Each structure stands twice: as C-alpha cells, then as structure tokens.
Amino acid sequence: MLTLRRPQSGFTLIEMMIVVAIIGILAAIGLISYQGQVKKAQLATIYQSLNSFRLPYQVLMDDGAGVTDFTPNGMNLAAESAFCRFSVIAPNIAGDTDDAIRCDIKNISYLKGEHLRLDRKKDGSWSCQYSSNVPKKYLPMTCQ
Asked: Which domain holds residue 86?
C-alpha cells in the first residue's frame, strides 16, 4: 500500500531567522532616525525659546529702559525652561552685543555644558551662535 505524502507547509527555521534579522535591521535604522529627530526637535525648541526674547528685548531698547530691566524677569519671561537657563545682557548702543540672549542648555545629556545664543548687531539684526560641541546637523537652518 502506497501512502501519499502531503507537501509540508510553513516556513523553515532559516527563513524565519532571515525575517527576524531583516526586522532587526529595519528597527535599528528606525531607532537611529528617531533619535536624530528628537535631537532636532530639542534644539528647535531651544531656538524658539531664544527667539521669544527678541521682541521684548527690542521693546525695552525702544523704551530706553535701564540696564536693570534687561533680565528675563524684566521682560516678563521665565528665567528657565525645560531645556534652558536664560541670561540677557543690556545692549551695547555703540556696537554689537554678543551674548545678548543666551541659553545655557540643561537636561539634555549629549549637550551638557553647551549653549545657544543670539547676538544683536549694531544694525538691529540678530545672529545665532552656538558652542563648539553642539552638532550643527541638528540645528535649525536659521542657526547654522
């Protein structure tokens, strides 16, 4: 008597291992990309926080405010945020003001001890500066 064998269905162990390896590679690539986007978002948040000081700074200049008003509290803004400890210095009327608005970065492990700042030029324009260990690839385009 002849028995007919049915063809086996399913996947072999090798096929399953290849699928798991491909999923692992895709997950690793996705995680790296996600981490990069998180870093970009953190620096964009810091830059937006710095920019929120520009208008009050200009208003105080236009009003002829005293040197003591050039603080975060004098501008009715918080001295700290989730990622920043802010400092503001009075403008140099005769020239450029370096470190006009500065964020000393906190609570971000890869940026410990770093800073972002806005310098005010004599002509009223602003430029973004950053410390040397801040990765340029994560900065907003307006700060590069």
From this structure: 15-143
